[in-house]
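Hi P.,

Sorry for the delay on this. The queue was packed all week, but I finally got your sequence through. Input first:
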Amino acid sequence: MELADILAPDAVIADMRASSKKQALIETAQRAAHVTGLHERTIFDVLLERERLGSTGLGGGIAIPHGKLAGLDRLHGVFARLATPIDFEAIDARPVDLMFVLLAPESAGADHLKALSRVSRALRDRVLVEKLRATDRADALYALLVEPLRSPRAA
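Then the structure:
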């Protein structure tokens, strides 16, 4: 599975201006609603429910909010590069500036876990992360994200 399978060009936010975790989740839910056709409040509620279980801030300024939703026919992603890092209650307490929201059908099971693993693997690539942080155009961010991983890469 490649990120191009779950991320559409119009699902990339290049310069999100969120000042809090809640606002970032609201804004990514709005974009996800546009991409999936589901209601933004439904998406936000699922993401917020998952965050209440524990932050999806992985450390290193990266978060991967995710959840399962009825009404989805496939996996969808939304990527956001924040203009200013925000507190995400991440494991390392570092503010987050890169978010990849992953939404899966309720029945996704292993596919959801495979997609989470794929997103996590991509965002552990230091070279990719540096390029994402240095880019402020949605089309360039999309191109970087959907480029297949090369082996071996900096981890």
